[in-house]
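Need tokens for this chain, all 139 residues.
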Amino acid sequence: MKFYALIIAAFLSTPSFAAEVSIEMLNKDANGNKMVYSQEVAKVEVGDTVTWLPASKGHNVEIISSPNKMKFKSKNSKEAKITFDTPGIYYYWCTPHKGMGMIGLVVVGNDLSNIDDIASAKAIGKSKKKLKTLLASLK
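Here are the structure tokens for all 139 residues:
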């Protein structure tokens, strides 16, 4: 009888798998917006991995503000990959195109506890208005 209970428990339990999200670095999206990431707000769970893919040359990913003070800056035109282990909001930009509004957010574990830190983080040019818009979309 115990044997059958173990088998049933094994089939009923659902294994936890980390997800992988891909974000393209684009010169222009389908709507004609220039210098953008294909997904400007990515919502993931703790343990998930985000991969930024260089669909166009000259772009990178630089983490500007995060809940764990992460320091990360990829090389231009190279794939970048981060596995997120700390819940919260991660704000990043394309270093060469930050003034044009090429920014994005990764929200890990639906945790918005550091939203005030992100709101007061550095933003340049068009990134200022865009950051406010992206943060407003989370509330």
